[in-house]
Structures
1.
Amino acid sequence: MSRLAIITGASAGIGAATARRLHADGWRVINLSRRPCPVNGVESLETDLAEAPSPSLVETLRAACADSERVAVVHNAGLLASDSAQGITTAQLHAALQINVVAPAALNATLIDALPAGSAIVFIGSTLGDKAVGGALSYATSKHAVHGLMRATCQDLAGTGVHTAVVAPGFTDTEMLRDHVGGDSDILDAIASGVTFGRLIEPEEIAATIAFCIDNAVINGAVIHANLGQIER
Ligand SMILES: NC(=O)c1ccc[n+]([C@@H]2O[C@H](COP(=O)([O-])OP(=O)(O)OC[C@H]3O[C@@H](n4cnc5c(N)ncnc54)[C@H](OP(=O)(O)O)[C@@H]3O)[C@@H](O)[C@H]2O)c1
């Protein structure tokens, strides 16, 4: 059976791990990001999700869907910035909403009627889709919105045989997290100490959770938390 995975942001981190996992499992994988996916055999279509999907991108993706018996769309690309209620600009808020919410919704709108029954749409959320910390206003706001987008999408997909879910990672050892803390290993250690397992999550662990959601339609309309158990303070 021909299976196609369309993954945003598979040039790094969780997206690259998911591309590696699905490619190894026999899926044809197409990555949408500005940089190429480092995994051999994964096709990369240079895409800036800050912009609306171009007609040629839509045509290419719809043709790939038409050649496939099952499609998994993984909305993984994300934007994490430091900002707060005191002083956030509308430009900062628009930027986070664009990458984290508007781009997935826009891509879905162009693809959903091309998805065969048995397909899946998985959004990558965050623990900050359910709670907030200081200094991450645009991120927490947009990740909360991802839950709403997924739940509304689930309702609209009723009867199509396409299921949808959010995988909400905790602290995962990727560029995003390392850049956010300025590469400071003391901060990373402090973050790890706030997890019941005392370590960061490996991107491959999130990739395995995504693969499980893709393959199990019973996980429809659900938010799956994948955070190794965060210590409540
Ligand atoms: N790491 C964590 O601790 C953590 C925790 C909770 C949730 N998450 C979520 O997990 C997802 C993946 O994050 P990650 O940690 O793997 O981050 P990462 O290693 O920094 O990768 C982010 C990916 O997003 C893509 N991206 C960002 N802006 C883009 C744009 N304008 N156009 C196209 N692609 C864009 C990047 O591709 P290019 O730069 O090549 O364009 C890159 O492939 C995100 O949704 C993030 O919010 C991560």
2.
Amino acid sequence: MRLARQSSLVVAVAVSLSALAQGQGIDYAKIEILTEKIAPNLYILTGSAGADPGHQDAAGGRIGVLAGPDGIFMVDAQYAQITDKVVAAIRKISSEPIRFLVNTHVHPDHTAGNANFVKMGALLFAREELREEMLRPPAPSAAGSPPPARDPARLPVVTYGMGDPVKLRMNGEIVDLIPVRAAHTGGDTMIRFENADVIMIGDFYRNYGYPFIDTNNGGTLKGALEALDATMKLAGPNTRLIPGHGTIINRTDIVPYRDMILGVQARVQQMIREGKSEQEVLAAKVTAPYDAKVPGGLLPAGAGTSADRFVSMVYSQLKSGK
Ligand SMILES: [Zn+2]
């Protein structure tokens, strides 16, 4: 009897945490779009804090807007429910048409608004892998009802694989779409603005919560570490690196982040060698030396804290030899 009660409690907690991971509980009406000018014609749009349980510090993923007489180039599309607010913020910057949109990766906080912007005339660029990730059938709902039909306009029109960056020249800027080998997801892109000396790096780095490597969408731990190294090489001492979430950083900020991943990886590898199970590794709280320096690290994320999600990912990646 006691056991049964406990397990129903566990189920209830697991259900509410997975609802959180799927972006439920977001108060879209409460989200405001904050605009920051970071170069003469480059702007960053961020959702306000306190409305998105999965991203308490700032709702959704960051948007980049390159404006000028050649039209608008945009990085990422935020949640579909707040497209009107994003468009209103863009219209305060420029009245030119939104011509190009690129996705840093597949997650809905970066892509759910795609179809809205495509219908306004934007040409959508992304990795071929991202397009494949988007085409995968969605999981049926818990109630067993079929998933809602998806708008084909959400899909990238121009796709590219690994290899040389795709370059766009407009508004006096050279924009490089730089493919990243399987890191946060299997279809990551960094967007570099050469003259502004800015790189929008997506989500393989984050300073709010522990690293999230989405292995279900092709992300890998090894690829994330490679992406961090590549970013440090690509960036100059003054290059501003803009993650999808959290604060804007320089290349030196990547060093302690990479060292934290390597530290946790070494601890987990050691415990695997000692024959420890995933539960034992989680119970050992291997992130403890870093917890004080990772805001949001002990908040719920998926089926546990973001620290647990990270440690489980490291465990399964090392266990499967990735
Ligand atoms: Zn994100």
